[in-house]
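Reading a protein record of the kind used here takes little practice once its layout is understood. The fold follows as a row of integers, each naming the local backbone shape at the matching residue. With these conventions in mind, the following record can be read line by line:

_____
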Amino acid sequence: MSLKKYLMMIAAALYVLPLFAINPQNSKMKELNVKKVSAANIPVESVPALLDKEKVDFQPIKSVNWASEYPYRPDVEFRIAHTDDAILLHYKVKEASVAAVAGRDNGPVWEDACVEFFSVPANDGVYYNVECNCIGTLLIGAGAGRANRQHASQEVLDQVQRWASLGREAFAERVGECSWEVALVIPYSAFFLHTITSLDGKSIRANFYKCGDKLQTPHFLSWNPIELEKPNFHCPEFFGLLNME
């Protein structure tokens, strides 16, 4: 075992108690049942149609956690399912402006029109952040806390299929109401610090976000509410719960 992986395991062990103990602050924890669908080697562009066929409902991302400073709330919704070897995600967004400056993976996608999925797939305190701007540029990180996070390699990132209604080419901010969608097929291999072969029957902590740090109107929305003073998505104590079929 490498020293880096050993240290990650120690950090996760130290982190697991506060993460999975009942947090009295997280009194509004949401739960979502996640349907399992049969979709071997599904192309990412077919994900929206498959989720329509499987009658997977959209869920709103609408918690404005820092309303005094960032009151803007675009219309955002997501839906999620899982297969034998992947998580399927589909987001729909309508907002006042859109930008996709980050054209390379593991860049500052959160500054663009961005949707995010944070999760603890192994229930051991290590959480992953999967961040995607409106053209499908990804950032994937992992760790037991916000500091010293490890980014996925390009080899891992390339295993995540992406579809974006606005195309895949970077562009500067476009002001004016815009609607866009992205879909992702996230194989379990994307959880690169673990060896995950199935999520069947498991309950995992997770949250979903919408942000745009450098858009004309910055905003920070979450699916499960966050009760902190300042914008911070790296807060597993405020994750909701996904019950996987």
Observations:
- The first strand starts at residue 31 and ends at 36.
- Residues 49 and 55 are 10 Å apart (CA to CA).
